[in-house]
């Protein structure tokens, strides 16, 4: 069976996001943590659903949704960079993986 790197990366990312959300909630950052948790774990769910798409159009649609969720999660992490505690909370790892996921969706020429 061929390995699915995108699914594997999205699963690792979801675990990182869950850990980040747990730490954010410990610092009473409920609003941003809830949103990051939803969008960050939705990426892998959409990639998983794409594997069982009903056709090419459905497959592309699921991956486009996953890309939008990856973009949203990346955006939501930016306000955290201005918080004093963010550097020690898995923030950098999650931000880096968010970028890697988006790059896998969108091939940049050159």
CA gyration radius, whole angstroms: 14 Å
| Broad structural category | mainly alpha
What is the count of helical runs? 4
Give the overall shape, derived from the CA principal axes. elongated
Largest sheet: number of strands, sense, barrel closure: none
How far apart are the termini? 31 Å
Describe the protein.
The chain is mainly α. Helix content is 76%, strand content 0%. The protein is built from four helices and no strands. It has helices spanning 5-26, 30-50, 56-81, 91-105. The longest helix has 26 residues, at 56-81. The termini are far apart.
Question: Which features characterize this protein?
Answer:
single chain, 110 residues, mainly alpha, 4 helices
Outline of this structure?
The termini are far apart. The protein has four helices and no strands. The longest helix has 26 residues, at 56-81.
Topology:
Layout: H1 5-26, H2 30-50, H3 56-81, H4 91-105
